Amino acid sequence: MICIGTYLFFFRNNIKNDATLYIPTNATYQQVLDSLEKNNVLINKSAFEKIAKQLDYPTLVKAGRYVLEKPMSNFELVKKLRSGNQDALKITINNVKNLTHLAAKLGAKLEPDSASFYQTFIQQNILDSLQLNQDNILTIFLANTYQFYWNTSTDEFLARMLKEYSRFWNDDRKNKAEKLGLSPTEVTILASIVQKESSKYDEYARIAGVYYNRLKKNMKLQADPTVLYAKQKLGLSNRVYNKDTKIEHPYNTYYVLGLPPGPICLPETKSIDLCLDLEHHDYIFFCAKDDFSGYHSFAADWATHEKNAEKFHQALNANNIK
């Protein structure tokens, strides 16, 4: 039975400031106290400690991210921390260049560091089980916004991503990929190139159709974004010159035949779907339109492509664009 005096003691002394408290895995009670003081949360430290002791919190510290907002009494604060009722955070995975970049993004948001994430992703037993390698493992991650607890382990994170991947690659999408003669991994690699070629979603399916035709004709893809990616992998400048198309690198599709060994970015799921529903046409060439709209002119033969390219270069010269 709690008497009136005790009741008032438990529920008085609201926290001083709003704060987000991060309690690391295996943290001690003293570390929690230090963090509360550092964040200037407590109005009355001794009152907090008394309640914490009565609720046996010093032996029940739970890691996590806890959002503390006024008004919150010491009792409510201890109860929240003691229960491990932490607050999830949103993790948006997009604009990812490669696996190292992804690991760095995650390490900046979640408790494990970037090196831990990277090492988990490239475990040989994981790669073998998925029949993937360090070049294409990035394809299992889907660009989206997810909710995670701050102290999610790297293994738990990977398990969640694999679950999302399996949900996305349902029978319908797998069947579409199979009809194209491509694996889900290959479709994702194709989508990464298409996404880097254009910012116009309404021509993604057409561009994907061009590359698909080149693949079927056993032609080199000759995708400029792959040249830039190859240069970046080599630590070279971000500008692409004609001579760069001759760089001997597995990601340079002017040099290698077929798709590169892995994606050149993490494509959006919309890009993947547009590649699965690619346009079937006769185009095998395309270049930027001369109106600088960001769209492209497509051609089924070299002569038409040369005319389109000449129009674009004339527009560049007319506008004194080098």
Topology:
Layout (H helix, E strand, L loop, with lengths): L3 H8 L7 E5 L5 H10 L6 H10 L9 E5 L5 H10 L5 E5 L5 H11 L4 H8 L2 H7 L13 E5 L5 H15 L2 H10 L3 H14 L6 H13 L7 H10 L35 H8 L8 E4 L7 E4 L2 H17 L4
Antiparallel strand pairs: 1-2, 3-4, 5-6
Helix pairs in contact: 5-6, 10-11, 10-13, 11-13
Strand content: 5-15%
* Overall 3D shape: elongated
Mean pLDDT over all positions: 92
Low-confidence stretches: 1-11
In which order are the strands of the major sheet placed?
1-2
Order of helices and strands: HEHHEHEHHHEHHHHHHEEH
Q: Care to count the β-strands? A: 6
Largest sheet: 2 strands, antiparallel
First-last Cα distance? 83 Å
Structural class: mainly alpha
Q: If helices are DSSP runs of H or I spanning 4 or more residues, what is the number of helices?
A: 14
